[in-house]
Write a structure and sequence with these properties.
This protein is mostly beta strands and 102 residues long. It is built from 1 helix and 7 strands; from the N terminus they run E-E-E-E-E-E-E-H. It starts with 10 loop residues before the first strand and ends with a helix.
Length: 102
C-alpha cells in the first residue's frame, strides 16, 4: 500500500487469483465489479474494499469468484463505512472474465 501513496478518494481492492490449472495463467487486465464491494476505512484514513478471490478450475476457461468481506487482506481495525451499492450478477461477471482465463 505504501507504494501506491495516499490518494484520499481511492480505495485499495485486494485480489487473490488461484490458478488450479496445469498451464500458466496470463492476465492482461482485470475488471472488478466495484459496485458489488463494501467500503472500509482504516484508522489511518485509508479506504479499502472487500477482497475478491478468483479461482480458475483445471481445464476451464472461466473463473469462479468470491467476495470476501471478512478477509485477512483487510488491514486490522478496518471499519465498514458503506455496503455494496448493487447486487452482484454472477453470470455477467464470469462471462466478463472468461476471455482472460483461456
Amino acid at each position: 500500500v505504501e507504494l501506491l501513496g495516499n490518494i484520499p478518494h481511492r480505495a485499495v481492492t485486494p485480489v487473490e487469483i488461484v490458478n488450479e490449472g496445469t498451464d500458466n495463467l496470463n492476465i492482461e487486465q482485470l475488471r472488478i465489479p466495484v459496485t458489488a464491494l463494501s467500503l472500509y476505512e482504516t484508522p489511518s484514513d485509508h479506504l479499502w474494499t472487500s477482497s475478491m478471490r478468483f479461482t480458475r478450475q483445471h481445464g476451464l476457461g472461466s473463473a469462479e469468484f468470491d467476495i470476501l468481506d471478512e478477509s485477512a487482506h483487510l488491514p486490522a481495525d478496518s471499519v465498514k463505512i458503506a455496503e455494496a451499492r448493487s447486487p452482484l450478477q454472477r453470470k455477467s461477471v464470469i462471462h466478463a472474465f472468461s476471455s482472460l482465463f483461456s
